[in-house]
Amino acid sequence: MNLHLHLSIFFVILFISLPSSYSCTPNEINALLQIKKSFNNPRVLSSWNPQTDCCTTWSGVTCNNGHVTDLFIPPSKLSGQIPDQIGDLLDLRVLSFNYLPHLTGNIPRTITKLKNLDSLILRHNNLSGQIPEYISELKNLTFLNLSHNNFTGPIPGSLSQMPMLQNIILEHNQLTGSVPNSFGSFVGKVPNLSLSNNKLSGKIPESLSKNDFNGVDLSKNSFTGDGSMFFGRNKTSITIFLSRNMFEFDLSKVKFAESILDLDLSHNRIFGNLPRELTGLSLRRFNVSYNRLCGKIPRGGLLQTFKSYEFSHNRCLCGPPLKKAC
């Protein structure tokens, strides 16, 4: 009796100690093979062999307890559109297609079936059309990066209804219109916002003034009006890039958060003086060139460590690091 008990315990321990090996479910295997087929069986997916374990030998596929949780297709000449079968990987948490210049079309609606999706990264591809409103149905998404594509049309206002979203990266597209008014009231934490290098224009909605963005990048668009709403002594912003727009406000009246490390306001229509409180910031990057600023550059802090060109082409700025004396 004791011998049987000891043997039972031995085999239980042996079973527990064995490395667990799972393969995808039949539905997931079929979905992955359909995805491969839709891309015309590219060489980059040659390891996707139905005779092998998809969780351990298929490149770009990561599993947890036998379910596909991460799908990453590395840079290649793969061509086609994102197939509907992507929505059949129901446990997917990370979807990452990057540097695929022949990946075209839009994001299929079946992506809304991915209720566990945490990160959607589709950058440096050739996707086009409008960014679909139904992306907002991905309620667990924290990271959205659709940068470096050819998306057109407006920014979906429904993105503000995503409770977990922490990063919105839509830079380097062909987006038009302005920032949605709904971005003044995110249902979750105010996300980092990167909209640079688009065709956006118009005034920033006043509703955004109450937001405390950790980082905001609106550079290289055609925004107008008052951009000072992103500043405030009690805010915690680290990065504020507003360069190459047509913002027009009095910089001398702006209150800066001590947290700011990177500040680029160049190539706008900003006027007034440089506030002395700039000398109290631990700036890593600073540029106010090509504006309408006047007055003496405050001495102290890090301002004099920046290059003269980062203050150049203003109406009447003077003092170091500029050669023009006051």
UniProtKB/TrEMBL annotation:
SUPFAM superfamilies: L domain-like. The keyword Repeat applies. It comes from the Eukaryota. Residues 27-64 form the Leucine-rich repeat-containing N-terminal plant-type domain. Transmembrane segments: none annotated. It is found in: Cell envelope. Keywords: Leucine-rich repeat, Repeat, Signal. Residues 1-23 form the signal peptide. Belongs to the polygalacturonase-inhibiting protein family. This is Leucine-rich repeat-containing N-terminal plant-type domain-containing protein. It comes from Eruca vesicaria subsp. sativa. The lineage of its organism: Eukaryota, Viridiplantae, Streptophyta, Embryophyta, Tracheophyta.
